[in-house]
Design goal:
alpha/beta, about 300 residues
């Protein structure tokens, strides 16, 4: 039974990849983030609704990816193509992928149906292109979710990608699959890489760009990639634009603007490579910002 005034969190244990770094290397610790965030939400005693869901089929991946690439990932052959996302091919990862990628779709559909915010404990694999993976992203769950929602509900969506990096794979698939008419990608990574905006300047630019999209009349739902790798100490960002306090301000601003626009929102996690502890802190703050905005809770943020 659904509880009122609580965020639904979409996570399936079959998609957990905790301790996978023991098999493929320590640098891949971040693949265990979904389970770590879920357990942290439980440990902190937050009031939320846990939701599981049906996994994608391998045919679902072909909605936005070349069938030859999909088969390479499934079988591990040819290995160069199967590992084009720069993650070593591993049977455990292959088994988890249908669950990892279906999470965002299920979360977004629920947000659209109920009008309430949802949170998918998935990364939003924005570097995965139509015919290959890219930069730690095997399949693009963002585009696949949008494609399925367009086919099933005839709705237009906005991806608000607040990752440090550019969502180049998302744009590649929008072009390859002709998603222009029902999907916009606002990737803040483009603006950071070109303009090097930092701190409050970054937040002001985000407000300007998001306001333009929300007021355009185009999006009927938003997928918010609330990435942690914009943190100023993140090694993959080299020079991240935001402090921990500014990331919380980012989330507050985004949720306030989307709520005021009356558009459903589904959250996903995005990148984060400083430490698992930092990931947990940042994503729990995102959960708090969403709950405070939509359900008038008074959660305080943690910046330690």
């Amino acid at each position: 039974m659904s509880e009122p005034n609580t965020i639904k969190v979409f996570y399936h244990p079959a998609g957990a990849l905790d301790k996978i770094q023991e098999a493929i290397g320590d640098i891949y610790f971040f693949l265990g983030k979904p389970k770590a965030i879920f357990e942290a939400l439980q440990k902190e005693g937050f009031n939320f609704q846990h939701r599981t869901f049906q996994p994608f089929t391998w045919k679902d991946f072909e909605l936005c990816h070349d069938p030859g690439y999909v088969e390479a990932v499934r079988t591990g052959s040819p290995r160069e193509l199967a590992e084009s996302c720069a993650i070593p091919w591993n049977e455990r990862i292959v088994a988890a992928l249908p669950y990892i990628t279906a999470s965002l779709y299920a979360s977004t559909v629920d947000a659209i149906t109920t009008g309430e915010p949802t949170m998918s404990l998935s990364s939003g694999f924005h570097h995965a292109k139509y015919a290959m993976g890219g930069s730690l992203c095997p399949f693009n769950d963002l585009n696949i979710a949008a494609e399925k929602i367009h086919r099933e509900h005839s709705l237009r969506g906005l991806i608000l990608d607040c990752d440090y990096h550019i969502g180049n794979g998302t744009d590649d698939i929008i072009s390859a699959c002709n998603q222009w008419e029902y999907l916009h990608n606002l990737s803040m990574g483009y603006f950071f890489s070109r303009l090097c905006v930092m701190h409050n300047e970054y937040l002001l630019l985000l407000k300007e760009k998001l306001s333009k999209e929300l007021n355009s009349g185009f999006p009927q739902y938003v997928i918010y990639k609330a990435a942690a790798d914009v943190f100023e100490k993140d090694p993959m960002a080299k020079r991240g634009p935001l402090s921990l306090k500014e990331i919380a301000k980012r989330d507050e601003m985004v949720f306030s603007m989307i709520k005021e626009a009356g558009i459903p929102v589904a959250i996903c996690l995005g990148g984060g490579y400083y430490s698992m502890e930092a990931n947990i802190l940042i994503h729990l703050n995102t959960f708090k910002a969403c709950s405070n905005t939509y359900f008038n809770t008074e959660h305080s943020y943690n910046f330690i």
